[in-house]
Amino acid sequence: MAAKITYTQQGDYLMPDLKLPEQPKVQIGIWGKRHLRYLKNHHPIIYTNLLTSCKLTAHLADIDREANEMFDRLVKQLSKQEGVTEQLKAENQILWVRRMNNIRNRAEEFVNSELIYE
Fold first, then answer.
1. I need a labelling partner for 36 at 20 to 30 A (CA). Which of 17, 42, 87, 114 fits?
2. Is 93 within 8 Å of 58 (Cβ atoms)?
């Protein structure tokens, strides 16, 4: 059975009314949104291919999940390497916050460069 195509008049032209199938509703976090913005601005062909093949949502959800896992793993590893512990937090909160912010910023930079903006 062939799908029925409808058209809309646009000036002198008849344009097909194209509509993508419904995609599942998935929460995309900050990492997935950053990757989406990167694809739209720097790789529009890849973005369009993912969108029209209905794979964009799944791709962004995968990127978001991988980035969250990578970020959490890096923060834990760097905290352990640099001795940023709960004991330090109890003894000197300002130093702990400063060092944790530094660790989180480095982990974020790494995730951005290795996964989001690759």
1. 17
2. no
pTM: 0.79
pLDDT digits (tens, 9 = 90+) for 66-115: 999 999 999 999 999 999 999 999 999 999 999 999 999 999 999 999 99
CA 99 → CA 44, 50, 96, distances in Å? 38, 39, 5
Cα–Cα distance between 54 and 66 in angstroms, integer? 20
Query: By the 8 A CB rule, do 6 and 17 touch?
Result: yes
Question: Which pair of structure tokens corresponds to residue 96?
Answer: 């702990």
Q: How far apart are CA 70 and CA 48, in angstroms?
A: 27
| Among the listed residues 31, 50, 51, the one whose alpha carbon sits nearest the alpha carbon of residue 118 | 31
The values of phi and psi at residue 15, to 5°, are -105, 135
